[in-house]
Amino acid sequence: MAALGLSSSAFIAAARRLARKHRLASPRRGFYLILRPEDRVAGAPDPVRWIDPLMKYLGLDYRISLLRAAAFHGASHQAAMVFQVIVPRQLREFEIGRHRLQFVYQAPAAFAKTNVPDWLSQMKSEAGFAKVAGVELTLLDCARYFHKAAGINGVAQIAWDVGAKADPRKLAKAALAYENSAVCRLGYLLEHAGHARQAKALEAYARKAKSMKPLDPSIRPLTESLVEQYEKDVKWMLVINEPVEIDF
Predict the structure, then answer these.
(1) Do residues 45 and 33 lie in contact, with contact meaning Cβ atoms separated by under 8 Å?
(2) Which residues pair with residue 64 across a beta bridge?
(3) CA 219 to chain centre
(4) Which residue, 32, 44, 43, is CA-closest to 1?
(5) pTM value > 0.90
(6) N or C: which end of the chain has fewer CB within 10 A?
(7) Which helix (H) or strand (E) holds 99?
(8) Domains of the chain: which residue ranges?
(9) What is the average per-residue pLDDT within 131-143?
(10) Cα Rg for the chain, rounded, in angstroms?
(11) C-alpha angle 12-16-20 in degrees, rounded to nearest 5
C-alpha cells in the first residue's frame, strides 16, 4: 500500500478486480499470490512456492509432511493429491484452484520436540525453500496419521520405499514425541519391509507397551469374538487386523 499510495480499502478493491481477472489469488485473507501466466490454468502456483511465506504471515511454524514429504523422499508409489502440512494449531483445510491444502494438527508440546532443524529437510522451488519433514519424521507422521496417508497399506508402501534412508538413532529420538501405538505400528511395518536396523531402533517402545493394539484402529470387527481370530504380533504388541500389501 505504501508503494502504491493506496488506502486499505482501495488496495482491497484493486486486489479483488485483479483476482476476477485471474491475476491474483488469495489463500488467506490479506495474503495474495501473483499469478504468472503459467499458474492461471491451475488457479495458483504449486503450494511449495508460497507455503513458507504464508506460514510466516500466520505466525506459525510448520513442516510439509505425509504424502507430499514421502514423495519428496522417493516414495514413488505415492501420488500426492493433497498438500499436507503439520502445524501446532487447528487450521481449516482449503482449496485454491486445483490445489488442496490440508493442515494436520500436532499437539504443541510434541510439535516443539520434533520440529527441530536436524530432523527437517528443505524443499526447493524457484521461489525459495520450504520446510519438509526429514525421512524419520515423515515415517512417524505417516504412522501416527495413517488415515491421512493412504491407510495402513499406504504407510506400509512408504516404509518399504524410504525406510532404508532413515537414521535409526534419529528415528528412536524423534519417536519419543509420538504415541507408543504409532511407534509400534511403524516398527512392525519397517520390519515387514525388511528394514531391520530401523525397526530395531523402535523395539524398546514395544517392550513398554502395556496392552495389544490393533494395527489398523479404523477397522472394527463385527463381533468381539472375531478379535481372537486375528494374528497377534507379540514383539510389536499388535493385533494384525489388516493384511499388509506392498507393491515390490
Answers:
(1) yes
(2) 85, 132
(3) 22
(4) 32
(5) yes
(6) C
(7) strand 99-105
(8) 7-42, 46-240
(9) 98
(10) 21
(11) 170
Nearest to 150 by CA among 43, 245, 46, 42: 245
- For the chain, where are the alpha helices, taking DSSP H only? 8-20, 51-58, 66-72, 108-114, 135-144, 151-162, 168-174, 180-192, 196-200, 203-207
Cell 468381539, residue located:
224
Contact residues for 195 (Cβ-Cβ < 8 A; gap 6+): 159, 163, 164, 166
CA-based end-to-end distance of the chain: 55
The average confidence (pLDDT) of the chain is 92
Residue 144 one-letter amino acid = R
Dihedral sign (CA 152, 158, 160, 163): negative
Question: Based on the number of CB atoms within 10 Å of its own CB, is 133 exposed (0-12), middle (13-18) or buried (19 or more)?
Answer: buried
Distance, CA of 39 to CA of 53 (rounded, Å):
18
- Distance separating alpha carbons of residues 163 and 168, to the nearest angstrom: 10
What is the grid cell recorded at 199? 525397526
The residue whose grid cell reads 499437539 is 107
